[in-house]
């Protein structure tokens, strides 16, 4: 028995006309047995399959592309990729006690909510290079001594006298969970000018 296949397609290009494939099933002793298969819907089936495949591939790739873009720019509102940053100032004049942590109670910006306006402490949310700054102004005829503290360790000292401010501008490598804040020195009888003349801020420059 000899089994062979021979394809013959209707030459008409009219989509409304049927298209068939002729397949020889048996050709023995000049007595052919032929089966005809209708291929009219073959193109549509292939088209539907290709569209479905492309859509599935797109659905898989779009979230990957979105994630890549967000990681590149480092910011998306409400997501963990926000670049941590805060700025807070002092509303009213205060007379800090020796070694008192200064609480900057007017929060202007707190992306990532890493600054605590109740304790005055910024808890580092991610490892990285941060820029930390502050201006701490003394009252008329008064001195003001403060320090930047990291994890209970003195990092920088600041001094102001008679409306002259102590200022802080520093790039710092910080690790997740570390705490930075401003603490008054151990001196008594000093005043820090509020009314938003004294402020404290930090933001992430680059994640490490």
TrEMBL record:
Pfam families: C1q. SMART domains: C1Q. InterPro entries: C1q_dom (IPR001073), Cerebellin_Synaptic_Org (IPR050822), Tumour_necrosis_fac-like_dom (IPR008983). Keywords: Secreted, Signal. The keyword Ribosomal protein does not apply. The keyword Nuclease does not apply. It is found in: Secreted. SUPFAM superfamilies: TNF-like. GO terms for cellular component: extracellular region. Residues 79-208 form the C1q domain. PANTHER family: C1Q DOMAIN-CONTAINING PROTEIN (PTHR22923:SF116), CEREBELLIN-RELATED (PTHR22923). This is C1QL. It comes from Mytilus edulis (Blue mussel).
């Amino acid at each position: 028995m000899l089994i062979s296949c021979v394809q013959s397609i209707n030459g008409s290009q009219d989509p409304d006309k049927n298209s068939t494939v002729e397949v020889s099933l048996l050709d023995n002793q000049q007595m052919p047995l032929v089966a005809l298969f209708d291929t009219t819907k073959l193109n549509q089936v292939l088209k539907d399959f290709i569209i479905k495949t492309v859509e599935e591939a797109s659905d898989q790739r779009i979230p990957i592309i979105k994630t890549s873009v967000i990681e590149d720019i480092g910011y998306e509102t409400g997501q963990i990729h926000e670049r941590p940053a805060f700025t807070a100032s002092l509303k009213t004049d205060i007379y800090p006690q020796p070694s008192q942590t200064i609480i900057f109670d007017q929060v202007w910006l707190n992306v990532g909510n890493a600054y605590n306006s109740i304790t005055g402490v910024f808890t580092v949310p991610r490892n990285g290079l941060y820029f930390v700054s502050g201006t701490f102004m003394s009252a008329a005829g008064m001195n003001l001594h403060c320090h930047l503290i990291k994890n209970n360790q003195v990092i920088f000292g600041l001094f102001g006298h008679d409306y002259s401010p102590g200022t802080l501008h520093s790039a710092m490598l910080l690790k997740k969970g570390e705490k930075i804040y401003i603490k008054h020195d151990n001196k008594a009888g000093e005043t820090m000018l509020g009314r938003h003349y004294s402020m404290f801020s930090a933001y992430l420059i680059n994640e490490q």
